[in-house]
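Dear colleagues,

As part of the handover before I leave the project, I'm documenting each prediction I ran so the next person doesn't have to rerun anything. This entry is a single chain, and its sequence is reproduced below.
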Amino acid sequence: MDFAQTPAQRRLCQAVRDFGQRELNFENSGDGPATPFNREGWLRCARFGVLGWPVPKKYGGSGLDPLSTILALDALGYACRDNGLVFAVNNHLWACAIYLVEHGTPELCETYLPPMCDGRWIGAHALTEPGTGSDVLSITTRAERAGDHYVLNGTKTFISNAPVADVFVVLARTALEGARQQALSAFVVPAHLPGVRVAREWNKAGLHTTPMGEVVFTDCRVPARNLLGGEGDGYAVFTSTIEWERAFMFASQVGVMERILDDCVRYATTRRQFGRTLGGFDSISGKIADMKVRIDLARLILHKIGWLKDAGRLAMMESAIAKLFISESHLNTALDAVQIHGARGYLTEFGIEREVRDALCGPIYGGTSEIQRKLIAGMLGIAAGDETG
């Protein structure tokens, strides 16, 4: 594995940083629960090509290779201080668009990917239900075959991008008996279809410019051609695609961590207490050193995943490790930044506490940290619930 960036990758990262710092850090409407979706930032991302980075050029995307995509997302996270906008972009890419890229028919890709790349359509993943989160095999939303359509009924909740989404990837139950893993199917569902309704919008602690909502499907007739894979392939589609989400979505968080580090270094080298800079205290310099360690280790695992995906290989273990380590490292880095900045870190005026609120959900979405540890242990041969050793 060669860790050196190619000249093209270096140019891409610099261009992304310049774009983000120049065009995505304009004043939006604040950071309260009622903060609206940053549509202007979304459209600027579309014009720059962000919304199509992993999408083949024939469908309107940039066709970036996996490692270049990771590097670009890292740079975007560093440059754009609107973490909610970056999170909305990542949801669009890794919880919706990649499903089409990996499993959509040419017809589906030609219909849905171009408007998703140019910013006209926003994607979301309708997976979680009021009674089902990480236990995907227990979802209750039903899709019953009726001629050349499926009739969809059920409720999905805590769905990022839902209030502004134009298209959903939906996992639903198409069989009541038989093997659980063959009971689910995945569908592409346009938001404009009769029977699709966003029932409510949730207020959150952070990531306020990523709207989250509850979606209700009532006798929604979805064309059978909107299946991803075949009937009963939903769980296989989900498990083969989730590794993209667990790894690539968190590449942006590494950029955020580096931005926080740079802010802390600037503060620690200029703020003076007891006759010396804060950085002169071991308690402060140690926290900053830990930030750097987390960033470099996070990039190593992400770059390995980029290399594996570029080679067409699975990265289930590596993706679980990346999701676990980066999400927890991001939160720890943000908490350390509050401690380093003292009172300024706690006040909303300086934006440090916002980094904590935006990082809080990382160990939850995409499979909790506990789920990632269970997956990693399982892939090492440790059975769930085995307490014999």
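The longest strand covers residues 149-160. The chain has a mean pLDDT of 93.

All the best with the project,
I.
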